Amino acid sequence: xxxxxxxxxxxxxxxxxxxxxxxxxxxxxxxxxxxxxxxxxxxxxxxxxxxxxxxxxxxxxxxxxxxxxxxxxxxxxxxxxxxxxxxxxxxxxxxxxxxxxxxxxxxxxxxxxxxxxxxxxxxxxxxxxxxxxxxxxxxxxxxxxxxxxxxxxxxxxxxxxxxxxxxxxxxxxxxxxxxxxxxxxxxxxxxxxxxxxxxxxxxxxx
Length: 206
Known about the structure:
Blueprint: E1 2-6, E2 12-17, H1 20-23, H2 29-42, H3 102-118, E3 122-125, H4 135-144, E4 151-155, H5 160-166, E5 172-176, H6 182-187, E6 190-194, H7 195-205
Parallel strand pairs: 1-3, 3-6, 4-5, 4-6
Antiparallel strand pairs: 1-2
Helix pairs in contact: 2-3, 4-5
């Protein structure tokens, strides 16, 4: 697949062929879904907690006498059937972590990148550099590239002026190319990658 290479003014300065094994790979929807569910599950803290009847801070005195009241026999007000009592079978702290082999994770990324490439949502830049952090300049670059709603900007390495310029723009996120993940690919409409970031992706997924 041949795509244009644009500069920050939005002008086409060259063309480049995207590697077919990465950007034209077979699209495996169940695999992408599994990778996304895994990432979302691993992001959960799992710190939810409810108190059982043994942990509720209430009196341990028998509620009322055993016989003669006409009511059911009860020995504790901590029982789950009473207001203020413990919670039966409530959530406890646990880990939601899921495992997925590296080959499967990378195959899911290749599938997602192939979908983006087929929908012409990948924008390749010759370079992306700013002299100083300036949100207005970053907005101008995005408009020149035809980015209207949301964009994921991939960087080959730390680039403080670009990162600070983009972090205040709604719907825009900067990310190191080595941290590329399935959730961010699905979350943002356009994927902006300078040639250096493209080389990092090809070295990892190739």
